[in-house]
Amino acid sequence: MEVFVIGVGLMGGSIGLALRTRGHRVTAWDIDGERLDRCIAMGAADSASTDFALSCAECDIAIVAVPVSNVAELVAAALSAGAPVVTDVGSVKAPIVSAVEGLSTRSEYFVAGHPMAGSEQDGLDGADADLFVGATWVLTPTNATNQDAHALTRSLAIAVGAEVIEIEPERHDALVAVVSHVPQLAATTLMDVASEAGDGSAVLLRLAAGGFRDMTRIAASHPAIWPDICAANRDAIVDALDSYVEALGAVRGMVASGDRVALLELLTRARNSRRALPVSAAIEGPLAEIRTPIADRPGVLAEVTTLAGSLGVNILDLEIVHSIEGESGVLVLVVPSARAASLVDALISSGYRPVRSEL
């Protein structure tokens, strides 16, 4: 696979390292020439691009790994230059998808993505070939997404060790506000409050127990990316913050009134919910193959994969077998056997004609 990485910070550098380790060829581009030289020197790319348009035209897929505020513009530029497929790694999706649709006549070849991985080290210094191994990589295709572009983007994410799930762009933004953006703001605010309350950093460090360190760890992440993220996902973040502030107000009331019963119920409920979180999405046990005829049109693959995502079914492998006439084909999915029945039932309810076989 010929991959063009646009932007070589933490994500772009890690993608480059991961792909090259697995035998793919990577060309890199960045507005910062010094950073681009470092990227080449550390082995995160085979070569530096001296011609953005030519690199777009010659690649199999371009990956835009720049701050959220610049993603749509560069995605549109890559599509305009002839990149056959473009994806991104931004942590906000709906505004980017909408902007690209308005900027490019080839927006169906853009498959928006978000690898849920990171590092406490800033920029290229934190790049790691194994950053995505076992991580969740979210794709947010739409009804207009070209299915071959969609399938290639899935293959890239899987190639670097990630586990792919697919949901709608708007749902992604609402969920990520709760599990990523608000936690960042909460950790940052708690760290700031503690710093103001502490009698000097030395005393604060001596008092800081494991729980405080765990809760504020992400406050050490690179601050420059967050104003853009908060602006892009403002509405979802504000909604999530409102819910969090309301819940904190309720906790304050429990503590102030000495309501031990309500406090214990909250602590128990939260403990049970935390323990119920899956430790890993690793798949064990037998596998099943599901084959279903599909129309050869944009959006079909997105319908099926987002349906699987809504059911919590992990698609381990995917292939589209095109017909000679080009009007239809067969979608082949490999999923855990234990979850296959629910997906088959949902596909039938959605009008598909799946056939299941055990592997």
Give your account of this protein's structure.
GO terms for molecular function: NAD+ binding; prephenate dehydrogenase (NAD+) activity; prephenate dehydrogenase (NADP+) activity. InterPro entries: 6-PGluconate_DH-like_C_sf (IPR008927), ACT-like_dom_sf (IPR045865), ACT_dom (IPR002912), NAD(P)-bd_dom_sf (IPR036291), PDH_C (IPR046825), PDH_N (IPR046826), Preph/Arog_dehydrog (IPR050812), Prephen_DH (IPR003099). This protein is 50% helix and 17% strand. With 359 residues, it is an alpha/beta fold. The protein has three domains: 2-167, Rossmann fold (3-Layer(aba) Sandwich); 173-276, 6-phosphogluconate dehydrogenase C-terminal fold, CATH 1.10.3660.10; 287-358, Alpha-Beta Plaits (2-Layer Sandwich). Strands 3-2-1-4-5-6 form a six-stranded parallel sheet, sandwiched between helices. The protein has a four-stranded antiparallel sheet with strand order 11-12-10-13. Helix 7 (169-197) packs across helix 11 (234-257) and helix 13 (300-311) packs across helix 14. The longest helix has 29 residues, at 169-197. The mean pLDDT is 90.
